[in-house]
Amino acid sequence: MARKVVGFGEDDLRAVAGARSFERGLGYLDAVSGLEVGESSVTAVVHGTDVYEVELTLGGDDSPPSGWCDCPYGQEGNFCKHCVAVGLTVLRRAKTIPHQRAAARARASGLEAWLTALSRDELLALVREQIAEDRGLRRRLELRAAAACSDLGTVRERVLALIDLRPFARYEYADAPGYAQQVAEAAAALCALTADGRAAQAVGLAEEAIRVLGEAYGEIDDSDGVVGEAAAAVAEVHLEACAVACTDPEHLAEWLVGQVLGDGNDVTDLDPLDYAEVLGSSGLARLRQLAAEARRRRPSGWAERYLMERLVEAEGDVDALVALYAQNLDPSGATHLRIAEELESAGRVDEALTWAERGIRDRAAETYIDGRLVDYVCARYAQAGRPVDVVGVRRDRFRAERSLAAYQQLRSAAQAAECWETERVAALAALREDVRSERGGWYGGPVLIDALLDDGDVDAAWREAAGLADDRQWEQLADLSRETRPAEALAVYLRLVERRKEPTGDRAYEHVARLLLRARDCHRALGTQEAFTVYLAGLRAELRRRRKLMSILDRYGL
Q1: What's residue 96's pLDDT?
Q2: What b/e sequence results for 322-358 when a residue is b if at least 16 CB atoms lie within 10 Å of its CB, and e otherwise?
């Protein structure tokens, strides 16, 4: 019932916070005060090491809860123990939430009615009172007033002050929302300038703002992208102002190229083609000319290549685009795939396959090749009724990669071509040779063991595992053998428990508990439950000081 009302339950809080924060949050239930319920969120104060403000969303059944807290851990973007405490408090008061939501709507409606009834003088007095107490509101209104009065000097001064990063001395994640709000205010002021008939001035000031933003962006942690979104709003205002001001197209083209090729484009991610209508034919021609010159000066530059590719794509000349891609073929074969896809989209399927095959052929000896290219070629062969050729490609990739994924892909292809028995013998022989020669060092255990386990060939996996398998593979082998080889599986589980005794932490303790449950199953299958009871008692006595482990074992019935 509570979950239907507030949109989440205790399990959701535990999942989003993690076990550690959830358990700590239980200890803060009595520290929650000032709970206020809005239409879609709740706010509260939690008294911890300091007094922290928390805001929690009241979501829907399909979305997990989200929250914000101004404690150090919460400011890093984590769903902290204080958020958990507020969430649990909301759940315990779920019956009152609908009433509180209705009250919040009534308060909002009453405020709207009261404001509507105020006279002009009363409204002015109210605004003056607020701007005297709220510096941020005063600053925003001063900027709006300057823009409305076409006071360009003040507008410029205020806009640059808003996007100045220096007041945010820490340049940390927690600073990003506040800085993003100021950037959004700057965008609103530039928009107002355009609406007031000063679009040309808005263009110049927007370009200056974009330059400053580009310089500042690398100094702040914008993990959530809020600054980027606000900066994109500045770029949108620039585009709108250019259209209204009928900006000189060639000058605009030069500015766009400089922006795209410069170091500051990450923040706005400008696409010159968004300006196509404003540029017109003369501006686009100048854009193409400048892009070609930049490409000649720095043929290996990523930004230069991106700009040229975007322009050629827009022109729709497939041959020109293929020629451009072919100048810089990626070692992974990704560019071959891109060319193939462009040609196929143009209806030139034979040429597309030729390019893809060339990519496979050119990279045949490489350990890594873009898997999408291999999949592309195999899919086209399968469509053409060429299963044997699919097997050939997958076999070559397996020989080069020697990975479980390559083995699985070869198996699927060979089964479709009804030749897996022969291919499997050869593939396993190659993997056994890898073991003998220690080819590739088989980090994480030899692929041979993984392949046998993936095939379900448990007996062969047991024969090969001794001295070769790593802990992960031993555990998987034991899991597959609990019912048929309980004694061997038991020996594996007990050995793994001994190795897992030293690491600490919830994850390690949970793993130990799961291993012990499987060991108990083996003892039951062997009829030696008493031996397990003795072993478990000894283990608990040995590790009794690890209270967290003891509580987890209790929870698992151990």
Answers
A1: 84
A2: bebbeeebeebbebbbbbbebbbeeebeebbbebbbe
pLDDT tens-place string over residues 497-536: 998 888 777 788 889 999 999 999 999 999 999 999 999 9
Ordered strands of the 41-47 beta sheet: 32-37, 41-47, 51-57, 67-69
Query: Could you tell me the two tokens for 178?
Result: 């506040």
Q: What is the pLDDT of residues 121-152, one digit of tens each?
A: 999 999 899 888 887 778 777 777 776 676 77
Secondary structure string (H, E, C) spanning 158-181: HHHHHCCCCCCCCCCHHHHHHHHH
pLDDT tens, position by position, 346-367: 999 999 999 999 999 888 777 7
Lowest mean pLDDT among 130-144, 232-246, 280-294: 130-144
Taking a C-beta distance cutoff of 8 angstroms, is the pair 240, 276 a contact?
Answer: no
Helix H or strand E encompassing 537: helix 529-542
Is the pTM higher than 0.70? no
Count CB atoms within 10 A of the CB of residue 499.
12
- Which has the closest alpha carbon to 378: 358, 362, 356, 363? 356
What's the maximum distance between 2 C-alpha atoms anywhere in the chain?
92
Q: Following CA atoms 354, 357, 363, 365 in sequence, which dihedral angle do they give, to the nearest 10 degrees? A: -140
Average pLDDT, the chain: 86
Report the C-alpha gap between 541 and 534 in whole angstroms: 11
Q: How confident is the model at residue 59 (pLDDT cuts 50, 70, 90)?
A: low
Contact 343, 355 (CB under 8 A): yes
Beta bridge partners of 37: 42
Q: What is the DSSP-derived secondary structure letter of residue 66? A: -
Which string of DSSP letters, residue by residue, matches 452-494?
HHHHT-HHHHHHHHTTT--HHHHHHHHHHHTTT-HHHHHHHHH
Q: 389-392 contacts: CB < 8 A, separation 24 or more? A: 390/416, 390/417, 391/417, 391/419, 391/423
Helices 176-195 and 226-245 cross at an angle (nearest 10°) of 10
Average pLDDT of 177-196?
A: 84
CA distance 170 to 112: 39
Q: Within 93-134, where are the H helices?
A: 97-117, 120-133
Residue 354 CA, chain-centre distance (Å), reads 35
Share of the chain above pLDDT 70, in %: 94
Please tell me the distance from the alpha carbon of residue 163 to that of residue 141, in angstroms, as a whole number: 16
Considering just the CA atoms, what is the radius of gyration of the chain in Å?
A: 33
> Within 10 Å of residue 10's Cβ, how many Cβ atoms?
14
Asked whether 482 and 521 are in contact (CB, 8 A), the reply is yes
> In sequence order, what E strands does 285-385 have?
none
| Residue 203 · residue 235 · CB < 8 Å | no
Distances (CA, A) of 404 to 5, 433, 454, 473: 47, 15, 8, 13
